[in-house]
Amino acid sequence: xxxxxxxxxxxxxxxxxxxxxxxxxxxxxxxxxxxxxxxxxxxxxxxxxxxxxxxxxxxxxxxxxxxxxxxxxxxxxxxxxxxxxxxxxxxxxxxxxxxxxx
Amino acid sequence: xxxxxxxxxxxxxxxxxxxxxxxxxxxxxxxxxxxxxxxxxxxxxxxxxxxxxxxxxxxxxxxxxxxxxxxxxxxxxxxxxxxxxxxxxxxxxxxxxxxxxxxxxxxxxxxxxxxxxxxxxxxxxxxxxxxxxxxxxxxxxxxxxxxxxxxxxxxxxxxxxxxxxxxxxxxxxxxxxxxxxxxxxxxxxxxxxxxxxxxxxxxxxxxxxxxxxxxxxxxxxxxxxxxxxxxxxxxxxxxxxxxxxxxxxxxxxxxxxxxxxxxxxxxxxxxxxxxxxxxxxxxxxxxxxxxxxxxxxxxxxxxxxxxxxxxxxxxxxxxxxxxxxxxxxxxxxxxxxxxxxxxxxxxxxxxxxxxxx
Lengths: 102, 357
Known about the structure:
The complex is a heterodimer. Chain A is mainly beta. Helix content of chain A is 7%, strand content 31%. Chain A is built from 1 helix and 9 strands; from the N terminus they run E-E-E-E-H-E-E-E-E-E. In chain B, 32% of the residues lie in helices and 27% in strands. The interface between A and B is large, with 34 and 37 residues.
């Protein structure tokens, strides 16, 4: 699934940042430099950003302004990073907290 | 452990329309103002508004929100305001110090005066499936699509027919999503007719007197159940996104932490810091403006910001009482102009409740 807008009637061509690669739970995905991690994930149809600690239910971004913390992930080893506010950079490693084992 | 401590004459928390106007007005009076914001650009939520605003020329009518944001940022920089981005204010202590987490790490600021203009956050509602990925605030979807160029889904159901629900529905259509409908438990559309006409012209059905029953799906939303309040019939919408436009609530934690007295006003979104007509809280040197002081429109936020900036400049003795009174009268006059009509007058009544509360 690709949820990128591309050409927008008012805003013109969107997402013109330089293409970079980030790793989500070890899998490479393409992203645009400068966009928030959560947006890069959403663009690829990855809507789960963490699993709840007890019931292991999936959670995804709710507010996109850094308040709800549903998008908090482990970024380059640092836990509880609000991915809706944190821009991607090339080679970044993102892990989904609480992800159930195989 | 001791943190670096930086003295500042005036700090504004939040670089949205209220915060920028507060800083600008104070800077014009000669106050060195510092604005902190956790986003990596200034302008607050104006940046995701791509529709033309209406109202008066003084509030940027005819311009799109992101254009107004860019102009405000530019005017601030011209006036010598410092805007520090990617800087989250973690705390506002009773001692008056602010704790900031910025690109260079965590530090403290001791401000002479502080304006809290942190805006609002979207309300949510509990129903089965409300925590599923794919359920998000309508404002969040707006950020995703208008700022980051990413759709929240291919097929979207909107809950709430207020202005946010209507405008975001239209903007999702513009960006290429399929909006399957707008549901609202009320018996009439909440937002302005101009906005509801637009989505109706695009063929989006508005289901009034309908309520959300559940969002269904395993790892994300796959369908949403909606019940008609009249017939009791249940409809299942196949969607991968459910947007909730249920209103906003003031973000006022910093003011509460600073021991500002809080009051409740349902019409203004819930709990907010008590303040007077000149945006002073009960704590000396602490002011509020914009949605933090009660959820209203961006034009009101700008005027409240100007008012807070003037009060701050006056209390720092950079404006005489007479100078301040003249400028405040002009702001008050414009604020009164914004509170005409049924919508504005309800808010005005609620504001009066705050002043007297």
